[in-house]
């Protein structure tokens, strides 16, 4: 894989992801175990035109759809353009509920970059 040369796009995406992590922290409180970058933003190759902003959220007991929608709505105030690229994968600590496909779990184990990590 070729290294990313679009430093401004990477910086903007990372800043946006940090803002989304702060929103998730505010909405989930003490139940938040970690928020992570996945995919090309975590392990290189992020491209402003083609890449998604993949994030993983791990909480004590999961998160409800209304809270996820509230985070997405508030994230649009940070950047409407980048919100359209945002994918949030989430689960409880046991990976028994949520939206966190197996391939993304492998990426989480091998390449995740912690934005917030409490455990």
The helix fraction, in percent, is: 40-55%
* Largest sheet report: 5 strands, mixed
Q: Helix count?
A: 5
Order of helices and strands: HEHEHHEEHE
Q: What would you say the CATH architecture is?
A: 2-Layer Sandwich
**N/C terminus separation:** 31 Å
Structural class: alpha+beta
Low-confidence parts lasting 5 or more residues at pLDDT below 50? Answer: none
Question: What radius of gyration results from the CA coordinates?
Answer: 14 Å
Query: How many structural domains?
Result: 1
* CATH class group: Alpha Beta
Q: Averaging pLDDT over every residue, what do you get?
A: 93
CATH-assigned homologous superfamily: Beta Polymerase, domain 2
Share in β-strands: 15-25%
Number of strands: 5
Strand line-up in the sheet with most strands: 4-3-2-1-5
CATH topology: Beta Polymerase, domain 2
- Write down the overall geometry: globular
Keywords:
119 residues; alpha+beta; single chain; 5-stranded mixed beta sheet; Beta Polymerase, domain 2
Q: Quick summary of this structure?
A:
With 119 residues, the protein is α+β, with helices and mostly antiparallel strands. The protein is 46% helix and 24% strand. Strand 3 and strand 4 form a beta hairpin.
Structural description of this entry:
The protein is an alpha+beta fold. The protein has one domain (7-117): Beta Polymerase, domain 2. The chain has five helices and five strands, in the order H-E-H-E-H-H-E-E-H-E. It has helices at residues 7-28, 39-43, 65-78, 80-83, 102-111, and strands at residues 32-38, 53-59, 86-92, 98-99, 113-117. It has a five-stranded mixed beta sheet, sandwiched between helices. Helix 1 crosses helix 3 (65-78). The radius of gyration is 14 Å and the shape is globular. The termini are far apart. The relative contact order is 0.22. The mean pLDDT is 93.
